[in-house]
Design brief:
Layout (H helix, E strand, L loop, with lengths): L11 E15 L4 E17 L4 E5 L6 H8 L7 E6 L2 E2 H7 L2 H10 E4 L13 H12 L7 H11 L16 H13 L5 E5 L7 H18 L2 E5 L3 H7 L2 E6 L2 E7 H6 L4 H8 L40 H5 L13 E2 L6
Parallel strand pairs: 3-8, 3-9, 6-7, 7-8
Antiparallel strand pairs: 1-2, 1-4, 4-5, 9-10, 10-11
């Protein structure tokens, strides 16, 4: 009898992740909690080694908060986060330096703004040496060689090590940010809109670099963006967020060729196209996103949805894939 192949465990598993912020008001004697902002509301997904999962959505939908919660740069309110089998929240809760550093080496962050994420008073050598010093995984005698290897890996000459951030272009600074993330040999990179502040021509270069690094090093990417062009180029799967909730998850082809949620269709339709005739065929939504302080009942998108039903106002749809498919969506009246 032939043995059944067992699928490898995901590198990253996120279940029920939530992040809330309490709104407090102070009177003469004490503070009172007067409200709550649910920035991330019970989201779940997995990410395999060597895979790219992109999280997309409008500004303020909770993409960056979700990413920072996974990295524990902000403490999650609820949920289970496991990286390569390790319980992320429990590890940071124990606050044992050796365990925390070992976990940090497995997951690193590439920041959105290369102008603000690098210390302007440090040379590039100092910037790339700092993670080697903190983590201590490379002997000091090899630091200079490691810095040169990191610069070569991101396509920069070795003599850039003596320069300062203000002497580099935006694309070169972002390459330094990527090199700094790679200095500790991570398995997961969380890229938070890494090309949004770059010129169009430079974006393509950085995206090609990320694709080459993934193929060479087997990295997994959690890619945060509202630029659906770069998302389509780099991703294997896409998760769509709206007002803190995941509303659709599928492969790149499933999301772009047959979006089931009306919000996803509107995001795709908003991408500029050189075809003038396509303007009349675009799916559109009306109005502004609701306030996070006054979330609508039922489906959060029903106040803007062109296909909303009475049930949408009463019942919150569950993110699910019909008939065992890989394409899941949360909608009572899908496209």
């Amino acid at each position: 009898m032939a043995e059944t192949a067992v699928a490898p465990a995901p590198l990253l598993t996120v279940e029920g992740l939530a992040k809330s912020y309490l709104i407090r008001r102070r009177d003469l004697l004490r503070q009172h909690v007067v409200g709550e902002i649910r920035a991330v509301n019970d989201i779940s997904f997995t990410l395999a080694a060597g895979e790219t999962l992109s999280i997309v959505g409008e500004s303020g939908c909770g993409k960056t908060t979700a990413a920072r919660s996974i990295l524990h740069l902000v403490e999650p309110t609820a949920g289970d986060i496991r990286l390569d089998g390790a319980d992320v929240r429990a590890t940071f809760g124990r606050d044992r330096r050796s365990e925390v550093l070992a976990l940090r080496r497995k997951m690193q962050y590439v920041f959105q703004d290369p102008y603000l994420s690098l210390n302007p008073r440090w040379s590039i050598r100092q910037i790339l040496t700092e993670p080697l010093r903190v983590h201590g995984h490379v002997p000091q005698a090899r630091w200079d060689a490691e810095v040169e290897a990191l610069l070569d890996r991101v396509g920069l000459p070795a003599d850039y090590a003596e320069r300062y951030p203000h002497e580099l272009s935006g694309g070169q600074r972002q390459r330094i940010g990527i090199a700094r993330a790679l200095a500790v040999d991570p398995r997961l990179l969380i890229c938070d809109e890494p090309v949004s502040s770059l010129d169009v021509s430079v974006r393509a270069q950085v995206l090609n670099l990320l694709a080459e690094l993934q193929e060479e090093l087997g990295l997994a990417y959690l890619y945060i963006s509202h630029d659906l062009g770069s998302v389509r180029f780099l991703s294997n799967r896409i998760a769509v967020m709206y007002l803190g909730n995941l509303v659709e998850v599928g492969t790149v082809d499933e999301i772009f060729d047959r979006p089931r949620h009306h919000y996803t269709a509107a995001l795709i339709a908003a991408v500029p196209t050189p075809d003038p005739a396509a303007h009349g065929r675009r799916a559109t939504v009306t109005g502004e996103a609701p306030s996070v302080l006054q979330r609508p009942s039922g489906c959060a998108f029903h106040t803007r949805c062109p296909a909303a039903l009475p049930v949408c106002e009463r019942e919150t749809p569950v993110l699910a894939a019909p008939n065992g498919e890989t394409h899941s969506f949360a909608c009572h009246n899908p496209r």
